[in-house]
Amino acid sequence: MIEFEKLEKRREERAIKKRKHDEEMELLARERARAEYDQWEQKLEEFHSKQAKYRTNIIESHEENMNIDSLSPLYNECSDFGVRKPKHINRVHTGYNWNGYNRIHYDKEHPPPNMVTGYKFDVFYPDLIDGDKPPSYTIEKDGDGVETCIIRFHGGPPYQDIAFKIVNNEWELSRKKGFKCVFEQGVLRLYFNFKSLRYRR
C-alpha cells in the first residue's frame, strides 16, 4: 500500500508538471502569435500609408495638369509618380480548321495550314486609383488592313493603355465556347476563340 501510494503521488506530480509545462507552452504560443499579428498589422498600416501618399501624388499631379486634354499625355508627365505599363500574359491558340474544303484536300497525315484559333489575355492592374471602375478593352482598325485589328486595354491611372495586333476574325461569345471577360483580384482576364470559318463553294 505504501509503495502504491508513492507511485500514485509520483504520477500526480508528473501530471502537475506536465500541465504546467503545457500551460507555459500555450502562453508562449499566444505571445508569439500576438507578436506576429502586431508585426503584420504594422506592415499593413505602412502599406496603406504608402498607398495613400502615392494616390495623393497622382491626384496632385492631375490637378497641376488640368489644361491637358486627355490622360495619355498626363501619363508621360507623371512618370515620377509610378505611372507604368501593366504587366500582362498573352497566349495565342493555334489549330486546324477542318471545314469542308480542308476535309477534301487534307488529312491527318497532311493537315491544313496551322491558323490562329483564339487568344488569352491576362492584364494585371493591382494598384488602380479608381478601384470602382473596372478596366476595359476596345477593338480598333489596323490602318487600312482587314486581316488584322488592334485590341486596346484601358485600365486608368496609374496605368498606360497597352495595345496588341490580333487576327481580325469573328469571336465566339458563348462561355461554352471558351469566352471569358472578368476583372477579379486585380487581373483583367479576356479569353476568346474565333468562330469556325465555313467553306462556301
TrEMBL record:
Residues of the Splicing factor Cactin C-terminal domain: 83-201
An annotated GO BP: mRNA cis splicing, via spliceosome
Residue runs in coiled coils: 18-50
Keyword Coiled coil: yes
A GO CC term attached to the entry: cytoplasm
Keywords assigned: Coiled coil
Entry-linked InterPro entries: Cactin_C
Source organism, top-level taxon: Eukaryota
Protein name: Cactin
Protein source organism: Artemisia annua (Sweet wormwood)
